[in-house]
Design goal:
Layout: H1 2-10, H2 15-37, H3 39-59
Length: 64
């Protein structure tokens, strides 16, 4: 039993996965925070892109 316990405590196979999960969680929290803080500015930027693409599509004429 003591040998099993020592092997279990020294097992590091899940350590990398846990570290990657923590890094991913921190990045997700940072993205949500930035999106919350800059939400209005991002909405304006995306609306300008939509308006530009819509305007470009309406102004293009097909010449036969």
């Amino acid at each position: 039993m003591k040998c099993f316990l020592v092997q279990f405590l020294n097992n590091r196979s899940g350590q990398a996965l846990t570290e990657y999960a923590l890094i991913l969680a921190v990045i997700a929290i940072a993205v949500v925070a930035v999106m919350t803080l800059l939400g209005d500015q991002l909405q304006v930027v995306f609306q300008n892109v939509i308006d530009t693409l819509t305007g470009a599509g309406a102004e293009t004429e097909v010449v036969s």
